[in-house]
Amino acid sequence: MKYRELGRTGLKVGEIGMGCEGFVDHDGRYTAALFDRAEAAGVNCVDLYSPSPEVRSLVGAALKGRRDKFVLQAHLCTAWKNGQYERTRNIDEVRASFGDLLSRLGTDRVEVGMIHYVDSLDDWNAVENGPVMEYAVKLREQGRYSP
């Protein structure tokens, strides 16, 4: 595996990463095996688009004992509602969802963060100038999230 610095973060990530979206197709039953294979192949960057709370818990179990071997990317502005992964700008939902993610992962931080699904300049302006960005900056200052 070849590794590169991720922007100016100082983080070294493999040129090949792993996403978790496909884990839901099989109710997450391959989660541990996929993390085992990723680790064995030197894959260390994981995008945690993992909408299902159950899959998030399975990812947390797969990370147990090897959390520091992976660079985790997570999304802000998502919520699990009525069996659906939804975009939200409601700051209470944003906080609750991110807290739930960290709890299910068994960690206190992710290395890379992103604002989920910005599809217009107006949407970006609302995020940038509102409570979501304030929350993201606070998380970064606490070392829990690096947007």
Please characterize this protein's 3D structure:
The structure is a single chain. Helix 1 crosses helix 2 (53-63) and helix 2 packs across helix 3. The longest helix is centred in the middle third of the chain and has 15 residues, at 91-105. Strands 3-4-5-8 form a four-stranded parallel β-sheet, covered by helices on one side. The chain has helices spanning 31-41, 53-63, 91-105, 121-128, 131-141; strands at residues 3-5, 12-14, 18-19, 45-47, 71-76, 78-81, 84-87, 112-115. The chain has one domain (12-141): Alpha-Beta Barrel (TIM Barrel), CATH 3.20.20. The chain is α/β, with parallel strands linked by helices. Helices cover 38% and strands 20% of the residues. Strand 6 (78-81) and strand 7 form a beta hairpin. It starts with a strand and ends in a 6-residue tail after the last helix. The protein is globular, with a radius of gyration of 15 Å. It is built from five helices and eight strands.
